[in-house]
Amino acid sequence: MDSNIHIKPYKDGWDVIREGARYAESHHETQEKAIAAGAVQARRESVELVIHGRDGTICARNSFSHAPACVPG
């Protein structure tokens, strides 16, 4: 199973970092740019994009997995 992608604040900007990774995959000056970069990666890898706020709490999640969100029934 692939690791989810997180958008986290770091110093003067925002990191795109894989869940459990030690280092960021990229660093951006704004949260919006980091989200755009992370979304491309999450979509390509069919994983979840987890967006954190400045205080570190999770603000939003976006699933790019190919699994259905719910099973009709």
Short summary:
With about 70 residues, this protein is α+β, with helices and mostly antiparallel strands. It contains one helix and five strands.
Structure description:
- The chain is 21% helix and 36% strand.
- It has 73 residues and is an alpha+beta fold.
- It has one domain (5-63).
- The longest helix is centred in the middle third of the chain and has 15 residues, at 31-45.
- It is globular and about 35 Å long.
Number of helices: 1
The proportion of residues in beta strands is: 35-45%
Structural shape: globular
Number of strands: 5
Task: Flag low-confidence runs.
Answer: none
Percent range for helical residues?
10-25%
Structural class: alpha+beta
Average predicted local confidence, pLDDT: 90
Q: Give the C-alpha Rg.
A: 13 Å
The domain count comes to: 1
For the sheet with most strands, the description reads:
5 strands, mixed
Main-sheet strand order equals 3-2-1-4-5
- From the N-terminal CA to the C-terminal CA, the straight-line distance is 27 Å
Order of helices and strands: EEEHEE
Question: Which terms would index this structure?
Answer:
alpha+beta; 73 residues
Secondary structure layout:
Elements: E1 5-10, E2 13-18, E3 26-28, H1 31-45, E4 48-52, E5 58-63
